[in-house]
Amino acid sequence: MADALVLSAQSGGVRTITLNRPQALNSFNATMHRQLAAALDDVRQDRGVRCLVLTGAGRGFCAGQDLADPEVAPATAPGAAPTDVGSVIERYYKPLALALRALPVPVIAAVNGVAAGAGASLALGCDLVLAKRSASFIQAFSKIGLIPDAGGTWLLPRLVGRAQALGLAMTGDKLPAERAEQMGLIWKCVDDTEFDTAVAELAARLASMPTQALVATRVVMDESAQLSYAEALSLEGRWQSRLSAAHDYLEGVAAFMAKRPAVFSDR
């Protein structure tokens, strides 16, 4: 559809979702939120999807919230009630962040350009972030008198520590992708000319792996951050009991013993 703000394409077990407002650097408005929510729900329900790639059309990944959207534009009329940006977080960004984190497949953020504000949080909320060398990450919130949102306050200190997180959030400075990789903010930065190939190869690799185990790894790592060492060990044991009863464990061990490639199928 010519007016689609979110595009979906399937290749093998890989679903690619592309934010499609290139003229606005793929910044969010209410319509794009609704279309993205529907696209993610389709990923959740379609058992043929084994890996998701999230990217942007044009020269940007996502510039965050479109400040011209009536839902967030400051009220300027005399006597008008202030705009409640927090309600937009509850209505759109919180469900989006939680939906991404709960998908039953690994998620790659393919950052093809600038990821700013909520767009940066969106990328960092994915499982693996692969970025072009020319891409950048900007915590733009302080420039408009707000705090990092869409999960930013939770993600940043866990990824890079409190000092770096506060520095990025308070200054709002542009962070080149190469530096983001060095800091541990993202998984990998690749040359622009190699980007598409690198994304396709990583997605295909993840799609061929044991999906349940990959998703369980995300879940357990997130949950264990809040647990004691002993509690984390118990959590690992519970998940290993569950996974070792599944087909992929049996297939993986059989393939290892027979010295053949495994064919994983659980999701």
Give structural notes.
This protein is α/β, with parallel strands linked by helices. The protein folds into two domains: 6-207, 2-enoyl-CoA Hydratase, Chain A, domain 1 (Alpha-Beta Complex); 211-258. Helices cover 45% and strands 16% of the residues. The chain is built from ten helices and ten strands. The chain has helices at residues 30-45, 85-101, 118-124, 152-160, 162-171, 177-183, 195-207, 211-224, 229-243, 247-258, and strands at residues 6-11, 14-19, 51-56, 60-62, 107-111, 114-116, 128-132, 136-138, 174-176, 188-190. The protein has a six-stranded mixed β-sheet with strand order 1-2-3-5-7-10, with helices on both faces. Strands 4-6-8-9 form a four-stranded mixed β-sheet. Helix 1 (30-45) links the parallel strand 2 (14-19) and strand 3. Helix 1 (30-45) packs parallel to helix 2 (85-101), helix 4 packs across helix 5 and helix 8 runs antiparallel to helix 9 (229-243). The protein is globular, with a radius of gyration of 20 Å. The two termini are 30 Å apart. The model has no long low-confidence stretch (mean pLDDT 94).
SSE pattern, N- to C-terminal = EEHEEHEEHEEHHEHEHHHH
Mean pLDDT: 94
Helix content: 40-55%
Tally of contiguous helical segments = 10
State the end-to-end CA separation.
30 Å
Number of domains: 2
- CATH homologous superfamily identity of the largest domain: 2-enoyl-CoA Hydratase, Chain A, domain 1
Q: Please compute the radius of gyration using only Cα atoms.
A: 20 Å
Shape: globular
* Major sheet: arrangement of strands: 1-2-3-5-7-10
Count all strands and give the number. 10
What structural class is derived from the secondary structure elements?
Answer: alpha/beta
- Biggest β-sheet, characterized? 6 strands, mixed
What are the low-pLDDT stretches, counting only 5+ consecutive residues below 50?
A: none
CATH architectural grouping of the largest domain: Alpha-Beta Complex
CATH topology of the largest domain: 2-enoyl-CoA Hydratase, Chain A, domain 1
Beta-sheet strand percentage?
Answer: 15-25%
